[in-house]
Amino acid sequence: MFKQVELSYSFDSLEPHIDTLTMETHYGKHHAAYTTNFNKALEKAGITEDDAVKVLASLSDIADEADRNAVRNNGGGYYNHNLYFSTLSPTPKKAPEGKLAAKIDATFGSLEALIEKLSSLAATQFGSGWAWLSVTPEGDLVTSQSSNQDNPISQGTGNIPILALDVWEHAYYLKYKNLRPDYIKAFFEVLDWGKVEELYNAVIS
Ligand code: MN
Questions:
Q1: How far is the CA of 98 from the centre of ligand 1 (A)?
Q2: Which CATH number covers residue 68?
Q3: In angstroms, what is the span from residue 148 Cα to ligand 1's centroid?
Q4: Same domain flag for 119 and 195
Q5: pLDDT computed for residue 190 by the predictor
Q6: CA 100 – ligand 1 centroid, Å
Q7: Which of 25, 102, 138, 162 is the least crowded, having the fewest Cβ atoms under 10 Å away?
Q8: pLDDT category, 116, cuts 50, 70, 90?
Q9: Within a domain: residue 171?
Q10: 153 and 82 in one domain?
Q11: Distance from the alpha carbon of residue 163 to the mean position of ligand 1, in angstroms
Q12: How many structural domains does the chain have?
């Protein structure tokens, strides 16, 4: 049985960057529904695997198309939001240190350049979707975007995401309306690079 990641912060604590009503709706309704529906879809498809990464990496094993799409969409929604919410903080570390900091500089030139690249991917994702920072099987960093609740795992890249930027309208429309770029700036105000660094170190270890 998959469960939503527990938040280490309150719904109102990311104000003014992410507003309370968006947090209540996004975590309390949208993410809750993805989680419930992921569990239901797995039961219907007869899948007992308890590692969401393994489930999303082997979607092609699900023969029935409706079952496969239900697991892909709801499993993606479950996994993506767990990552998204667990990397936000009211007291974020504003820059990574150690191996991740060095890898970002070597790959993108600077943290600012990486943030600019991710912001551009997030802003240009047509319709609902995500922007990603992931680690390849060789330990390299790559950025990407995806539609709907797809992610680098369900896309079959073999890469593991360590940063997820949600650009579905439900992530920002209550406060930012059509101004997605303003929300993207706000996201980076509450993104905890300490969490991203922890995830990177776990993937490469
Ligand atoms: Mn969302």
A1: 30
A2: 1.10.287.990
A3: 9
A4: yes
A5: 98
A6: 26
A7: 138
A8: very high
A9: yes
A10: no
A11: 14
A12: 2
Q: Domain with 129 in it: what CATH number?
A: 3.55.40.20
pLDDT at site 119: 98
Q: How far is the CA of 151 from the centre of ligand 1 (A)?
A: 13
Report the C-alpha gap between 11 and 174 in whole angstroms: 14
Q: What residues make up the domain containing 25?
A: 20-86
Per residue in 143-168, pLDDT tens? 999 999 999 999 999 999 999 999 99
CB 174 within 8 A of CB 19: yes
Residues 187 and 138 both lie in one domain: yes
Token pair, residue 150, equals 């797809």
How far apart are the CA of 21 and the centre of ligand 1, in A? Answer: 13
152 within a domain of the structure (yes/no)? yes
Beta strands in the chain (DSSP E): 129-135, 141-147, 160-166
Average pLDDT over residues 138-142: 97
- Of the residues 86, 116, 136, which one is the last residue of a structural domain? 86
Those residues whose beta carbon sits under 5 angstroms from the ion ligand 1 are 166, 168, 171
The single-letter DSSP state of residue 135 is E
- pLDDT, residue 141, reads 98
Task: Tell me how far the alpha carbon of residue 137 lies from the centroid of ligand 1, in angstroms.
Answer: 27
Closest residue by Cα to residue 50 from 13, 87, 105, 3: 3
Identify whether 122 is part of a domain.
yes
pLDDT at 168: 98
In the prediction, which pLDDT does 118 show? 98
Hunting for tokens 């892909």 — which residue is that?
72
- Centroid of ligand 1 to alpha carbon of 102 (angstroms): 30
Mean pLDDT across the stretch 36-48?
Answer: 97
Q: For the segment 193-202, what is each residue's pLDDT rounded down to a tens digit? A: 999 999 999 9
165 CA to centre of ligand 1 in angstroms: 9
Report CA(78)–ligand 1 centroid distance (Å).
9
